[in-house]
Write a structure and sequence with these properties.
The protein has 84 residues and is mainly alpha-helical. Helix content is 42%, strand content 7%. It has helices at 15-29, 54-63, 65-74; strands at residues 2-4, 10-12. It starts with a strand and ends in a 10-residue tail after the last helix.
């Protein structure tokens, strides 16, 4: 994503990739980004040990496994435990 110029300074080679990675980080892994991930839910991560919500977990696992996997990992848990 970066390359060195003639002076050895790093320059962004692919700005689209940088923007995409920043978006993914901000919306999936940052604590503030987790608040909007559950549609119609409480806004808390249902996989976090301090806010477990089995109903939201099962709905999310069935409806959107990729998002569930992101939230499981953000909660510091192993997605294999949830078979995703």
């Amino acid at each position: 994503m970066t390359k060195a110029d003639a002076n050895g300074l790093q320059q962004v080679a692919d700005p689209v990739a940088v923007k995409l990675l920043a978006f993914i980080h901000d919306n999936s892994f940052a604590e503030d980004g987790l608040a909007g991930l559950t549609e119609g839910g409480s806004g808390a991560n249902p996989f976090a040990s301090d806010s477990l919500n089995l109903k939201e977990q099962s709905e999310l696992l069935e409806r959107n496994p990729a998002r569930a996997r992101q939230m499981i990992m953000a909660a510091g848990r192993d997605p294999k435990l949830f078979r995703v």
